[in-house]
Design a protein that fits this description.
The chain is an alpha/beta fold. The protein contains 7 helices and 9 strands. Strands 5-8-7-6-9 form a 5-stranded mixed beta barrel. Helix 4 packs across helix 7.
Length: 269
């Protein structure tokens, strides 16, 4: 796998990419791209060994350019375990970003609120997570050239970046909340009993991504933060049917707020 990661990184280096910050855009989230002075757009299909997005709402290309004075590399579309990829494939782009010299990873996702105090449309800054997916990208032989066999996970989300997010959120008058994200396999949404369980074990929101990428970032010593757009309220006692179109629509409504938040964060790093 390391030779494939190197091949993909070398391909991008030969194209002149020298990013400082990596950004992963989640479901229905894409307005941040409009704020970037774009220098290159590269389809995943053109990059050696890169997986391909199979989710309809994920575009499937890398955006390279300048945002708030920094060189950024944006994933417009991520990969999920439920698409049939291994966890190593899911985090392949994060590994590649490390070899490109990136030190910071900013992640986003759409998630369901299981904390009854959190409402649809709010932005939740991840403080911690619970991995309910059936594995992680570090299982198997360790690649010492990327990171240690037993990475510490006591603080997977950078306190310094989270503090900046809340300072920026206060200036922008955003209603930011902080919480714990539970990652499940998907692709189906959860049952009432599963929502009760997820809340009971301490999660505030639930989704199908992000955690494998955060584990990979911790393994490689990258600082990361993540923000969830809460797209539905998962009250098991008053649960209404939700489809993915509704979730994407709510994410798009909050997309501009997240875009402004991350734009200022990039400038502050």
């Amino acid at each position: 796998m390391f030779s494939q990661i190197t091949a993909a990184a070398d391909f991008l280096i030969q194209k002149g990419l020298q990013p400082q910050i990596g950004i992963v855009l989640g479901t229905g989230l894409g307005k941040l791209v409009n704020e970037i002075k774009i220098e290159q757009e590269i389809s995943y299909s053109d990059i050696p060994y890169f997986p391909l997005s199979t989710v309809e709402s994920h575009v499937g290309k890398l955006i390279y350019g300048t945002l708030s004075g920094k060189k950024v590399l944006v994933m417009q579309g991520r990969f999920h375990y439920y698409e049939g990829y291994t966890f190593q494939q899911v985090v392949f782009p994060i590994n590649v970003m490390k070899l490109l010299g990136i030190q910071y990873i900013l992640l986003s996702n759409a998630a369901g609120a299981v904390n009854p105090e959190f409402k649809k449309g709010m932005l939740m800054v991840l403080d911690d997570h619970i991995n309910l997916q059936p594995g992680n990208p570090l299982i198997g032989p360790n690649e010492e050239r990327l990171g240690t066999r037993f990475p510490d996970m006591s603080c997977p989300y950078s306190k310094a970046l989270n503090d900046l997010l809340f300072q920026i959120g206060a200036r922008q008058k955003l209603n930011l909340c902080k919480g714990i994200y539970a990652a499940v396999p998907g692709p189906m949404l959860e049952t009432r009993a599963e929502y009760r369980y997820i809340r009971r074990i301490g999660a505030d929101a639930v989704g199908m991504s992000t955690v494998p990428e955060v584990i990979a970032a911790a393994h490689m010593g990258l600082q990361c933060c993540a923000v969830s757009v809460l797209t539905d309220e998962c009250d098991p006692d008053n649960l209404a049917a939700v489809n993915i179109a509704d979730i994407i629509a709510v994410a798009q409504q909050s997309d501009a707020l997240l875009s402004n938040l991350y734009k200022e964060l990039v400038g502050a790093i």
